[in-house]
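Appendix B, example 12.
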Amino acid sequence: MDTRTFTVKPVGIVHADDESFSIEVAGPFRPALQGLEGFSHIVVLWWGDRVDTPECRIETACRKPYTRGPETIGIFATRSPVRPNPIALSVVPVVDIDTATGIIRVAYIDADDATPVLDIKPYLPATERVREVGVPAWSSHWPQWYEENPGFDWAAEFTFEE
């Protein structure tokens, strides 16, 4: 087993409240925003700092996180931030980019306010989109496309409470 360790430094922070969502890119990384304008969506890698505990990092399975899912499911078969390394990924629609202030306004992101952002990448259909995808039967009724999410009752799909 590889025992290397890594140092990860945030490139920004999430701002989220009841009305708006944005990512503030730290000053030294603002030049990296050049050329991002024109992309309708970005991929945001963020650190689940609220679950970065020794207990959460040793979790390898969870008990029935999905209403129609199996009784026990491995962490790698979930999008839970509770995992060996609490790295999360979100594809988000870009509303506006202010390269001078480093603010990327997004329509929504499923990260909490003040969540550290590890990296930002453009969403590229040629490398991220897959036409024929297989999923387990318990999740086969979920929307097939991002645009279908607003009309879907996601709250009914999860067994945990906020």
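Residues 54-57 form the longest helix (4 residues). Residues 143 and 149 are 6 Å apart (CA to CA).
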